[in-house]
Amino acid sequence: MILTVTPNPSLDRTYEVPALERGEVLRATGERVDPGGKGVNVSRAVAAAGHRTLAVAPLGGAPGALVAELLAGQGIDVAPVPIGGHTRSNIAVAEPDGTLTKINAPGPHLTPGESEALLAAVGAHAAGADWVACCGSLPGGLAPTWYADLVTRAHGHGSRTALDTSGPSLLVALRGRPDVVKPNARELAEAVGRPLATVGDAVEAAEELRAAGAGAVLASLGADGQLLVSADGVWYGNAAVASVRSDVGAGDASLAGFLAAGGEGPAALAAAVAHGAAAVQLPGSQMPTPAHLNPSAVTVTTDIPLDRALTE
């Protein structure tokens, strides 16, 4: 069972338009409303793959109630933590060429009591979880050390931890020795404090995160594939994608595929790549089902293209 923690969930509205024209009245050709936030998306992808999951999230107001309702409608167990503020609402505008414009609201400010209630909710359910996936930005009221506390508590309950966040909260949480961290190329560069020009640069940066405390690094490099760097070796995975419809939640789908496939080794990396490639070809933040996956299009190798330039 995979338990997900989303400190700053959202209600996500995605509109598809022929073109984004600033200052004009636009007619959408498609619309989706999805429960959102990185951990929530991981739970949605895990459930879509037919595995057990529980989503822990602070939820408040009408948007929070709708998030819980939408998750339950997808067969996902939810452990909501009531808060006084309102769950944020985000908007994404998708164009036919794959260009995506996103407006993310800041989210509510959690009180010290709500922060502790969220940690307590994780503790109440972590003992039955194989993985605790800690994902997304921290809302106001949560210190950068919050994820570090969560990782330590999850380990205390015998669960492995996967961390998908960025900035100071990522660097501080490394002290708790999360089993897997999942940065994208930008977040990886930010973590090591320098730009990354090649896949080889990304490998070196991932090794630095391992030296700082991460058990393994699953790095999403966008169109340039994915890396898995662990104590057992380094693997590179990629898959051809005919067209990109929306990349919202693609990294979350990748993490879900990785954890559902065991969370270690080349087979799990192949599952991550397959899920990410399927997700970008779906509208909005729709998560792929097994029917959307194309494992035969995935290649995983230890022959790392170190000199390959990163395009994103």
TrEMBL record:
Domain of life the protein comes from: Bacteria
UniProt domain Carbohydrate kinase PfkB: residue ranges: 17-290
Enzyme nomenclature, EC number: 2.7.1.56
Protein name: 1-phosphofructokinase
Keyword Kinase attributed: yes
Keywords noted in UniProt: ATP-binding, Kinase, Nucleotide-binding, Transferase
Cross-referenced Gene3D superfamilies: 3.40.1190.20
Database matches in InterPro entries: 1-PFruKinase (IPR022463), PfkB_dom (IPR011611), Ribokinase-like (IPR029056), Tagatose/fructose_Pkinase (IPR017583)
CDD domains xref list: FruK_PfkB_like
Leader sequence segment: none
Gene behind this protein: pfkB
